[in-house]
Design a protein that fits this description.
The protein is mainly alpha-helical. The protein is 62% helix and 3% strand.
């Protein structure tokens, strides 16, 4: 459980909120066990070290869980209007960050909202910079190959949801739709059930 919680910490902010909540509940339970532990084989210093280890992992998860989504336009700066007649100031957008967020599988609507502008404003800025709004093409991989890779990820992180698995796949250079990853997780989970019953 601690190893899975550490993996979620390492994956922040690309995690599902229920994964964070589950990890926090598990770490809280471990913390309660440790503070009430009476074991002749462990001295108090060892127990305190374990407690501190659990708290160190819990802290970033709790911060992420307690932090509400940022309000619209936070961190979005504007440039003075280039027109001699004044007019509405233009947004100064970090297009490199926008492309990075989009390449991770986020829609342009979500990327635009995260940057505090409308989708049409984002498109206009990308077009003016000569950048394409086309999504990165999906990786050509068979279901069998995908199942094998996701099975290995699931073995190391059995409680990982689709968002974390997608992040792991992106780290391996495998770009797929969320629907295909979710279908693969269902197949892998079903296969795991069959193996456990055999």
């Amino acid at each position: 459980m601690v190893r899975d919680a550490q993996f979620i910490v390492d994956s922040l902010p690309n995690v599902e909120m229920f994964s964070v909540e589950r990890a926090l509940r598990q770490l809280h339970a471990i913390h309660l066990v440790l503070i009430n532990l009476e074991d002749a084989w462990l001295n108090q210093e060892d127990i305190n070290h374990l407690i501190q280890y659990v708290l160190d992992i819990s802290r970033p998860l709790q911060t992420f869980y307690d932090t509400p989504p940022p309000p619209r336009n936070i961190g979005t700066s504007t440039m003075p209007s280039g027109s001699p007649f004044g007019g509405r100031p233009q947004y100064d957008l970090d297009l490199t960050e926008a492309l990075r967020l989009h390449s991770m599988g986020n829609s342009w609507v979500n990327v635009s909202e995260a940057m505090g502008v409308t989708r049409s404003t984002m498109y206009n800025h990308l077009d003016a910079a000569g950048l394409s709004t086309a999504r990165q093409p999906f990786t050509n991989i068979t279901d069998d190959e995908l199942d094998e890779i996701v099975s290995l990820i699931s073995l190391d992180h059995p409680f990982a949801g689709s968002a974390i698995v997608m992040g792991h796949l992106e780290g391996k250079g495998i770009h797929l739709s969320s629907e295909r990853v979710q279908e693969c997780l269902k197949r892998v989970d079903a296969l795991g059930v069959l193996v456990r019953w055999v």
